[in-house]
DNA sequence: GGCAGAATAT
DNA sequence: CATATTCTGC
């Protein structure tokens, strides 16, 4: 008897270990949840299965309960994510998943696909999106207090704001700090409701879109604009609407962003940086051998192909961020409310640019992304092996 | 003169 | 490194 008891105990322990292992596994996989909802499910199911098989020992039961608890948690999370995604549809979604995008989805690659090197980027490749990450996570400027900003201002109060430079927007009211956002003034939102100001998206620690209060000291150095997550999101959104970083112009972007206090120069600068960080990575290993074949993940004994590979191209062959966060539920990239300009002009521009690029920048694998309009898809410059655009049903 | 983009500067 | 500012050409 004793022996038996011992044996049971042993088994129990083993089982628990197993459970733990599984749990861990699931955690790992959860990272890919967005892309591979199926995998999670499978693992989870396996989980249940094992839990339910035999043993009714109290300990096991406890385990079971615990597990179910965690499961519920996961589900809840999933749901939350989903709802968030769907509810945001406007465009924020797009940017929201940028960080994840980098690892396997052909993200919205504005003019230059740069993506497709999936195989490796899984863990590395941080190069490209690194800066993005920083931008997104950047915790906007703390309140006032810090630094000498106020001091300087007071010293050089000069305040000869005769010309008023850029926009009239909110004048001083340094105190207002946040709270504003109202921005009732400024250009009327015209048509699209646009992003309802501070979208719940994340830990936006009470920071307004326009970054901060701008003092009147115009003769002075501009206060560094911090591109908060929100701001950047808008930026991306605008970009998306305009057809990519290569097509959009600072002014357009600024208009679309509808952030008061935001100047052209600021947008220009940001855009410059954006482009910079986006173009370079392209030249790198565009695709090795089979890289183009959508990676298959082995789940259980089933191969699963991440949904991103079903990425669709937007009519104008632009961003198409989609990023299929939850795979199946992938919200289709929203279209620009004002679809007017984005069509002809931009396409033309696109073509021109592509020509230019293909001409004097042979070294850089510029990409092709014009699928939508059926226009070119330059056989990607010279990158090693053929790149048969293996696009799943478009 | 405005604007966009690149090049510098901070 | 992230922005700002300046320089250029259109």
From TrEMBL:
<feature type="region of interest" description="Disordered">
    <location>
        <begin position="328"/>
        <end position="394"/>
    </location>
</feature>
<feature type="compositionally biased region" description="Low complexity">
    <location>
        <begin position="381"/>
        <end position="394"/>
    </location>
</feature>
<dbReference type="GO" id="GO:0003700">
    <property type="term" value="F:DNA-binding transcription factor activity"/>
</dbReference>
<feature type="region of interest" description="Disordered">
    <location>
        <begin position="161"/>
        <end position="227"/>
    </location>
</feature>
<dbReference type="InterPro" id="IPR017930">
    <property type="entry name" value="Myb_dom"/>
</dbReference>
<dbReference type="Pfam" id="PF26575">
    <property type="entry name" value="HHO5_N"/>
</dbReference>
<feature type="compositionally biased region" description="Acidic residues">
    <location>
        <begin position="107"/>
        <end position="116"/>
    </location>
</feature>
<feature type="compositionally biased region" description="Basic and acidic residues">
    <location>
        <begin position="356"/>
        <end position="369"/>
    </location>
</feature>
<dbReference type="GO" id="GO:0005634">
    <property type="term" value="C:nucleus"/>
</dbReference>
<dbReference type="InterPro" id="IPR009057">
    <property type="entry name" value="Homeodomain-like_sf"/>
</dbReference>
<dbReference type="Pfam" id="PF00249">
    <property type="entry name" value="Myb_DNA-binding"/>
</dbReference>
<dbReference type="GO" id="GO:0003677">
    <property type="term" value="F:DNA binding"/>
</dbReference>
<feature type="compositionally biased region" description="Polar residues">
    <location>
        <begin position="177"/>
        <end position="203"/>
    </location>
</feature>
<dbReference type="InterPro" id="IPR006447">
    <property type="entry name" value="Myb_dom_plants"/>
</dbReference>
<feature type="region of interest" description="Disordered">
    <location>
        <begin position="83"/>
        <end position="125"/>
    </location>
</feature>
<dbReference type="InterPro" id="IPR058673">
    <property type="entry name" value="HHO5-like_N"/>
</dbReference>
<dbReference type="InterPro" id="IPR001005">
    <property type="entry name" value="SANT/Myb"/>
</dbReference>
<keyword id="KW-0539">Nucleus</keyword>
<keyword id="KW-0238">DNA-binding</keyword>
<keyword id="KW-0804">Transcription</keyword>
<feature type="domain" description="HTH myb-type">
    <location>
        <begin position="219"/>
        <end position="279"/>
    </location>
</feature>
<protein>
    <recommendedName>
        <fullName>HTH myb-type domain-containing protein</fullName>
    </recommendedName>
</protein>
<dbReference type="InterPro" id="IPR044787">
    <property type="entry name" value="HHO5-like"/>
</dbReference>
<keyword id="KW-0805">Transcription regulation</keyword>
